[in-house]
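Hi all, long-time lurker, first post. I run a small reading group and we've been trying to get comfortable going from sequence to structure in the token notation. Rather than ask abstract questions, I figured I'd post a concrete chain and ask someone more experienced to write out its structure so we can walk through it together at our next meeting. Sequence below, copied exactly:
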Amino acid sequence: MGKATINAAVYDTHGNPAEVLRVQTQPWPICGPDEVTVAMRAAPINPADLNQIEGKYPIRSPLPATPGFEGAGVVVETGPEARHVSTGAHVILPHNLGTWREACAVKATELVVVPSEIDLVQAAMLKINPLTAWRLLHGYVELKRENWVIQNAANSAAGRAVIQIARELGIKTVNVVRREELVEELRVLGGDVVLIDGEALRDNVKESTGGAPIHLGLNAVGGDSALRLMNCLAPGGTLVTYGAMSLQPLKVPNGLLIFKDLRFRGIWINKWYDNATMAERTEAFQQLFDMVKRGLLKTKVDRAYPLTEAKAAVTHAAQGKRSGKIIFEFNSPGDA
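-- Answer (accepted) --
Happy to help. Here is the structure in token form:
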């Protein structure tokens, strides 16, 4: 059914993604008895993808490797024992596969079937950032409507998902950013309070929230930014770290442990996913799918590239001050 070959992004050695990444022609993937062949439609470039190519990620794939923790596509062939999905199904790919390729063979049981009315570009970006945001708001502190949460890196894909999901749940967000031009944009997105990071953050937060207690902080930066979040938390509050954009460690003054009894947690969404039950995964995805269908959850795309421009795409993705995700969009080799 498929064409004879596909293009796939490959790296043979770890290093600067723009230097070590190349596009290689490979045979069309043939699915085994319990597998299906998926024609890819979209795959985003996440920081973790770049880190893995650089050799800085906790998991290293055997070389040569194809990167890509996220992606979505359409099932175009099924093996005789693949009963979980049928031809034509829209699916989200597993994170251990390498999605930066035009098509792949994968076990049917490892796929997440997506409602057909959801745009596959959006589906391709649901499994890391929106799912992380969902877990951040459900896995650490029991939040009720009108409770407050504070987060740094509020302009990141995960931060924007936190804003959108929290709004739907009736949870109020304090969103900390570094650039003035983001303030109004994140307010329009649904952020209750949007503040510029800096030494006056604690006072500004107190003023903006009327001194409401904040029991959950979400940290994707580390260093001084994380410390400022800690100082905004109520006694017994929890700081969950899911990123380290500043590349600086957490600095926790003894007093914040002794006198405020803060808790410190972390989340790696791929590990949560691997350990979660099918029921837990399904519940989270159903909630996310519902929000996407209702127009309440959307990941912003800065630019789409064809896979043949992989070097330009990863160079763009590594730059700061983007207005959204950089993604690969694929033609339809399997059902053309």
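A couple of things your group might point at:
Residues 25 and 126 are 28 Å apart (CA to CA).
The chain has twelve helices and 15 strands.
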